[in-house]
Design goal:
By secondary structure, the protein is mainly alpha-helical. Helix content is 59%, strand content 0%. The longest helix has 18 residues.
Protein backbone atom coordinates (compact mmCIF):
# COMPACT_ATOMS: atom_id res chain seq x y z
CA UNK A 1 0.00 0.00 0.00
CA UNK A 2 1.34 3.43 -0.93
CA UNK A 3 1.81 5.95 1.82
CA UNK A 4 0.44 9.46 1.57
CA UNK A 5 4.03 10.69 1.04
CA UNK A 6 4.46 8.62 -2.14
CA UNK A 7 4.23 10.65 -5.36
CA UNK A 8 1.53 9.66 -7.79
CA UNK A 9 2.68 7.17 -10.42
CA UNK A 10 1.29 9.53 -13.07
CA UNK A 11 4.12 11.99 -12.33
CA UNK A 12 7.38 10.26 -13.36
CA UNK A 13 9.54 13.28 -12.42
CA UNK A 14 8.17 13.30 -8.86
CA UNK A 15 8.58 9.55 -8.65
CA UNK A 16 12.22 9.82 -9.72
CA UNK A 17 12.84 12.59 -7.17
CA UNK A 18 11.35 10.50 -4.38
CA UNK A 19 13.36 7.41 -5.30
CA UNK A 20 16.67 9.26 -5.58
CA UNK A 21 16.09 11.47 -2.55
CA UNK A 22 19.12 13.57 -1.69
CA UNK A 23 20.95 12.31 -4.80
CA UNK A 24 18.41 13.77 -7.24
CA UNK A 25 20.52 16.86 -7.90
CA UNK A 26 23.84 14.98 -7.92
CA UNK A 27 25.86 14.79 -11.10
CA UNK A 28 25.13 11.57 -12.94
CA UNK A 29 27.56 10.03 -15.41
CA UNK A 30 26.91 7.64 -18.24
CA UNK A 31 28.53 4.23 -18.04
CA UNK A 32 30.96 5.38 -20.76
CA UNK A 33 31.89 8.55 -18.87
CA UNK A 34 32.42 6.53 -15.69
CA UNK A 35 34.68 4.09 -17.56
CA UNK A 36 36.82 6.92 -18.93
CA UNK A 37 36.97 8.74 -15.60
CA UNK A 38 37.99 5.61 -13.70
CA UNK A 39 40.67 4.91 -16.32
CA UNK A 40 42.12 8.42 -15.92
CA UNK A 41 42.14 8.16 -12.12
CA UNK A 42 43.88 4.78 -12.23
CA UNK A 43 46.45 6.06 -14.73
CA UNK A 44 47.29 8.99 -12.48
CA UNK A 45 47.55 6.75 -9.43
CA UNK A 46 49.86 4.37 -11.29
CA UNK A 47 51.99 7.31 -12.45
CA UNK A 48 52.39 8.65 -8.92
CA UNK A 49 52.89 5.26 -7.28
CA UNK A 50 56.44 4.26 -6.44
CA UNK A 51 55.83 0.79 -7.86
CA UNK A 52 53.68 1.87 -10.79
CA UNK A 53 50.93 -0.36 -9.43
CA UNK A 54 47.53 0.30 -7.93
CA UNK A 55 45.92 -1.93 -5.34
CA UNK A 56 43.42 -3.61 -7.65
CA UNK A 57 40.84 -5.12 -5.37
CA UNK A 58 38.31 -7.66 -6.65
CA UNK A 59 35.66 -4.93 -6.49
CA UNK A 60 37.74 -2.60 -8.65
CA UNK A 61 38.41 -5.37 -11.15
CA UNK A 62 34.72 -6.29 -11.33
CA UNK A 63 33.76 -2.64 -11.72
CA UNK A 64 36.21 -2.21 -14.59
CA UNK A 65 34.91 -5.41 -16.23
CA UNK A 66 31.33 -4.17 -15.91
CA UNK A 67 32.17 -0.76 -17.34
CA UNK A 68 34.12 -2.31 -20.23
CA UNK A 69 31.22 -4.61 -21.04
CA UNK A 70 28.38 -2.09 -20.85
CA UNK A 71 30.11 1.08 -22.03
CA UNK A 72 28.49 2.01 -25.34
CA UNK A 73 31.16 4.53 -26.28
CA UNK A 74 34.77 3.45 -25.80
CA UNK A 75 36.72 6.41 -27.17
CA UNK A 76 37.14 9.68 -25.29
CA UNK A 77 36.36 11.72 -28.41
CA UNK A 78 33.09 9.82 -28.94
CA UNK A 79 32.04 10.42 -25.32
CA UNK A 80 32.74 14.13 -25.82
CA UNK A 81 30.73 14.12 -29.07
CA UNK A 82 27.77 12.46 -27.33
CA UNK A 83 27.92 15.05 -24.55
CA UNK A 84 27.98 17.82 -27.16
CA UNK A 85 24.75 16.47 -28.67
CA UNK A 86 22.98 17.46 -25.45
CA UNK A 87 24.31 21.04 -25.44
CA UNK A 88 21.52 22.45 -27.67
CA UNK A 89 19.03 20.69 -25.40
CA UNK A 90 20.37 22.35 -22.23
CA UNK A 91 17.55 22.52 -19.71
CA UNK A 92 15.40 19.96 -21.52
CA UNK A 93 16.63 16.95 -19.57
CA UNK A 94 17.82 16.56 -16.02
CA UNK A 95 21.36 15.33 -15.57
CA UNK A 96 20.00 11.91 -14.60
CA UNK A 97 17.86 11.68 -17.75
CA UNK A 98 20.84 12.64 -19.92
CA UNK A 99 22.89 9.95 -18.21
CA UNK A 100 20.15 7.37 -18.73
CA UNK A 101 19.82 8.21 -22.42
CA UNK A 102 23.59 8.02 -22.87
CA UNK A 103 23.87 4.69 -21.07
CA UNK A 104 20.77 2.91 -22.33
CA UNK A 105 21.05 4.12 -25.95
CA UNK A 106 17.43 3.39 -26.89
CA UNK A 107 16.74 2.83 -30.59
CA UNK A 108 13.54 4.82 -30.81
CA UNK A 109 11.80 7.74 -29.14
CA UNK A 110 9.06 5.35 -28.06
CA UNK A 111 11.58 3.04 -26.37
CA UNK A 112 13.33 6.00 -24.71
CA UNK A 113 10.08 7.30 -23.27
CA UNK A 114 9.14 3.83 -22.07
CA UNK A 115 12.50 3.33 -20.34
CA UNK A 116 12.67 6.90 -19.00
CA UNK A 117 9.05 7.98 -18.40
CA UNK A 118 10.05 11.40 -17.04
CA UNK A 119 11.12 12.58 -20.53
CA UNK A 120 7.73 11.85 -22.10
CA UNK A 121 6.52 15.45 -22.18
CA UNK A 122 9.88 17.22 -22.40
CA UNK A 123 10.69 16.77 -26.08
CA UNK A 124 8.85 15.85 -29.24
CA UNK A 125 9.22 12.34 -30.61
CA UNK A 126 10.83 13.73 -33.77
CA UNK A 127 13.45 15.75 -31.86
CA UNK A 128 14.17 12.85 -29.53
CA UNK A 129 14.53 10.49 -32.49
CA UNK A 130 16.97 12.94 -34.11
CA UNK A 131 19.04 12.90 -30.91
CA UNK A 132 18.99 9.10 -30.71
CA UNK A 133 19.96 8.80 -34.39
CA UNK A 134 22.88 11.19 -33.87
CA UNK A 135 24.00 9.13 -30.85
CA UNK A 136 23.86 5.94 -32.90
CA UNK A 137 25.80 7.57 -35.73
CA UNK A 138 28.52 8.70 -33.31
CA UNK A 139 28.75 5.17 -31.95
CA UNK A 140 28.98 3.65 -35.42
CA UNK A 141 31.57 6.20 -36.57
CA UNK A 142 33.83 5.25 -33.65
CA UNK A 143 33.65 1.52 -34.37
Amino acid sequence: MASSDDPPASNPEALMKSRLGEFYHSTALTVSETRLLLGIVLEKRRATSKTGQVNETPTLTKTQDYLDLFSRYKESKTVQNIDALFTPLEGTFTNIERSQLGSLCPDSAEEAKYLIPSIANKISDADLQDLLDAMLKARMDSS
